[in-house]
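Progress report, Aim 2. The chain analyzed during this reporting quarter is listed below.
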Amino acid sequence: MRHHLIGLARAAGILAVALAAWLAFLQATGNFHAVIPGEYYRSAQVDRASLSEWTREHRIRSVVNLRGANPGDAWYDEEVAASAELGLAHYDFRMSAADHIPPAEAKALLDLLRAAPKPVLVHCRGGADRTGLASSLYMWAVAGWGEEEAEWQLSLLYGHIGMPGLSRAWPMNESWESLEPWLGIEGS
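Predicted structure tokens for the chain:
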């Protein structure tokens, strides 16, 4: 029995190290991903160099910041200036990963995402939680992808840890589930 417990402890340790390495990799790379190549991209908070590179490589035309307008904060002022220098449309939409998003806000976000010139880059601070929910909504409601594919946007693949009691971002998962009937997802 003791031998099995030691084996389980080692396996848990290996998994914890692998998870930490994955999350560190996502942050080091800006958590940048093509959700729909040529149309919709997602990332963590952008800096001038990354935004310039991604605009050049993927022809980004607009940026949607899910952290909301924060004039006077260095990250925000740099992002707005870089967007202007690159000729990108820049939009602010305030969300919190710790709060549910009601249907009226989800509709406003979807309207913004539909209207933003494509390709669009959507980001929040870490690119995992708010960006995950926005990407799920876009994939289902705008791009017409299936429920399972849309839900993958809120996953560990992008650094989202949605576990009740363990994650402050659990409301993003709850928001998706509560929005499913509003979105017309059958069986919700």
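The two ends are 43 Å apart (CA to CA). The chain has a mean pLDDT of 89. These observations will guide the mutagenesis work planned for the next reporting period.
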